[in-house]
Design a protein that fits this description.
Number of strands: 2
Strand order of the largest sheet: 1-2
Strand content: under 5%
Number of domains: 1
Radius of gyration: 19 Å
Distance between the termini: 37 Å
Oligomer: single chain
Order of helices and strands: HHHHEHHHHEHH
């Protein structure tokens, strides 16, 4: 009976993510409703362990590091996006509180549902190797973006191959951060810092004054050579760091036994 109930809660959790995470019909506040529902259904499924499962179990030190990393990520993203935009005759216009509010929670929802929960289930419950989990989920993360922009989102378009490859690398970085630190604080900070500028703000074509479409933003900015090089570097560092950390944990476990 308990398993059947948990399946119901899990389906409602997934539906909450799909229905309330994104900017459907200008519903800027939908994403925060989605966060509340996702946390509620997570609690009903995992009870006392739910904070660990959703990646929200942060120490005070980790919380302050997350805040600091968020600030650094925002400033770095602003510089990089302005640099890339200048090459394409695009300027960055700041937006409204509504857009920034939406970004906080839709990214939180993605980090929980596409990051922390599946990582926990695959590694802690199914005992799949961390590297395989990281790569597999990064592929899913990449294809979700392709599918959503091709068939589901209001602003439809094709995400190009180089952009998809960068998304895959970014997915690996995100997954490795969650695996190593066992929370979504740092991955959320990097994700938010980038997206709050690229999607919370309004990139506009200088000549026409029109806002750059969402698929074009992905292809022009995330698919740029600058982001590809940065993503390769970060993915490599994160894999090395994760492997070293897991090897250290195994050695400690062996000595302890």
């Amino acid at each position: 009976m308990k398993n059947a109930t948990n399946i119901i809660w899990a389906n409602l959790l997934l539906c909450s993510y799909l229905a309330f995470s994104y900017y459907y019909f200008n519903g800027w506040w939908y994403s925060s409703i989605g966060t509340i529902l996702i946390i509620l259904f997570s609690f009903l499924i995992w009870r006392k362990d739910f904070l660990k499962v959703v990646g929200l179990k942060l120490s005070l030190k980790e919380f302050f590091i997350t805040v600091s990393l968020t600030i650094v990520s925002i400033l770095g993203s602003l510089f990089l996006i302005k640099h890339i935009g200048s090459k394409h005759n695009i300027i960055i216009q700041f937006s409204s509180f509504r857009s920034y509010y939406h970004d906080i929670f839709y990214i939180l929802n993605e980090e929980i549902v596409l990051g922390s929960i599946p990582i926990y289930l695959l590694i802690s419950r199914l005992k799949i190797r961390s590297l395989y989990v990281s790569i597999g989920l990064a592929l899913i993360f990449t294809m979700v973006h392709f599918v959503f922009y091709k068939w589901i989102f209001l602003e439809k378009g094709i995400i190009e191959v180089q952009t998809l490859f960068t998304l895959f690398l970014v997915g690996i970085v995100r997954n490795n951060l969650i695996i190593v630190y066992k929370n979504i604080g740092y991955s959320w900070a990097l994700h938010f810092g980038w997206m709050v500028i690229l999607f919370g703000c309004l990139p506009e074509w200088v000549e026409s004054g029109k806002v750059v479409t969402e698929p074009d933003r992905f292809n022009l900015f995330l698919g740029s050579y600058e982001m590809l090089i940065i993503s390769i570097f970060l993915a490599g560092i994160s894999i090395f760091h994760m492997t070293k950390k897991l090897d250290s944990n195994r050695l400690k476990a062996n000595h302890g036994s």
